[in-house]
Specification:
The chain starts with a helix and ends with a strand. The chain is an alpha+beta fold and 648 residues long. 19% of the residues lie in helices and 39% in strands. It contains eleven helices and 39 strands. The strands form nine sheets. An eight-stranded mixed beta sheet has the order 6-5-9-2-1-11-16-13, covered by helices on one side. An eight-stranded mixed beta sheet has the order 28-29-27-26-33-37-36-35. It has a five-stranded antiparallel beta sheet with strand order 23-22-21-24-25, covered by helices on one side. It folds into three domains: 266 residues, Immunoglobulin-like; 169 residues, Roll (C8orf32 fold), CATH 3.10.620; 200 residues, Jelly Rolls, CATH 2.60.120. A hairpin with a 3-residue loop joins strand 35 and strand 36.
Length: 648
Amino acid sequence: MRKLLLVLLILCSIITVDAQNEFKQYGKVGLESIDYKSCPFDITAEAVVLSDVGESHFEQTPNSFEVVYERVTRIKIFNEAGMKWATVEIPFYREGDIYEQVEFIEASTYNFQNGKLIKSNLDYANCHVEKINESWNQTKFAMPNVKPGSVIEYRYRIRSEYIFNLRDWEFQWKIPVLSSKYIVRRNPFYQYAWILQGANKFDSQTSSVDPSEQNFGGAKYHEAISEFGMINIPAFKDEEFITTSDDYIIKLDFQLSKVTQITGISQNVMTTWPELITDFLKDESFGGYIKKSSEIAAKQFDLKSFTAKTPQEKFDSIITLVKNNFSWNKTSSKYASKTPKNFLKDKYGNAADINLFTIGLLNAVGIEAVPVIVSTRKNGRIKYDYPFSRFFNYVIIFATIDGKNILADATEPQAANDQISIKCMNDKGLMIKKDQVNWIMLQPLLASKKVSKLVIDVSDLSQSAGIETSETNQDALNSRNEFASDLNALKKSLTDKGYNLPDSSLSIISSLPKTPYQFKYKTVDTPEIINGKIYVSPFLHEIIKDNPMKQPTRTYPIDMTYPTKRTYYSVINSPKGYKVDFVPEKIRIDNDLFEMDYNAIVDDNKVVVSFSYYFKLPVYNAVDYGKIKYYFNEIIKKGNEKISFVKN
């Protein structure tokens, strides 16, 4: 074993050294890559990045510069599960009709067959472009002839006129990385701040100046060269309860901070939060849009009808009016895409079209409402030390009603009027209000609750149960969005959990946004009988069976989005001719993080069981990972304990 590990480590070092010259070594795949059987520091890995090298540099245009980004990546596929890494996605940015250009793609797969190294080249006809969102597209392709044991290699170049968009670099993948290196060549006209996330330092970092002199518009300069390198990077283990892996993986993030003209005049791009707020208020697609929406409200709506209403009634009327008459096109944005006049005519728009328009209407009827810009969970967390508007991709509504602060999102017709969706519950949002810098907490402190009540009848021939479930807050919104009043969709969800539902046994009691989401159903099954004893799970399929916390430790927060409380009541009628043989012990846990309560009582010819647990915080610190993992184990163990009956 020691000899095998030594061989693997030597191979690892060979490949790592080779990666330092990867731009020159492209296409020169040797047997050391083909013979690489497993990653020495993660023998369970399905694939490994042998080397990943990128470079960004500036090329002159007649009047300015463009950023050119090049990347060369080599991956070893170990098994069938690793073959998904042979699908390559190349994201590129766009604003309006101006796209970054993916100029060059070259890709090959290498297999060792019958003593020969076989190379299969990518057919470019298999490349296609997909839209990610309004700002990003991607070129996508699948590597040819990939199988376990293959080595894949690809390179590409992106040309961009967006100087602010100096490419970030992700050192860490969801598979191990043996060697990763990023080279940035900068001229003195553009200065960037950079942030290293997920690590304290690089394994290697060098800075130098290119001795060759260059000339732009009569100004002579030398390029500054920075190289950042890391080796033997473990795979990022993507677990439950996380915003996006982009918030926590090891990566290098660049932000344009200053632009200097050839005349020597400099302009700071790194602004301040007050300046950023002022810019939003002045922008015609933001502050100007709200103002025009207020002005147009008097012409399009009967504002006098709101005079006699209370502030709460005004608020609810406006939010409901927008939800009932305008549709969200599923595009996240912090800027309006059209004028209020066109939005009124089209009856649909992006998130900013809808929510900024709603703010304008609220202001017109006397409600104090302002926008809050946010970064959705998929978009990642805000970096509070770097006031850049591009961190934000969505806008919601903040209103004050009778002294109470309310957050709302008029794009969500299934949400209550004072509720935002889960996608927006991402740490804090920035209020856009003159002469103020206020960060608004987006994650609710009020628990979402789910209560399930079960009545179980069991005999030595059959088991049946009647179940009624009620959900509030975010749990209710999730169900309204997923099922609404669609019985077939809800039934499929229940059968997927393991329930056998007789025809017409399922009914939805309530699905309106202002009420809990409630439904009830009946289920039938065969009893579990072992050695003459009948065993009953008091909560059937309601309790989770697997712990979502899989890793031994965790270095990033456990983001549950909102506090959750689950309560289960079960009445089990004793089967005729049987008596209770075993009931689980009572248990109670109660602390600042978590609460759990279990109790089973034998009452004449029935067993009454109650079980509840409560995760009290929306987000837990990484140091609490072990405790949260333990709590889930206790939920699974206690919630799935069985009650047994034995013949009299």
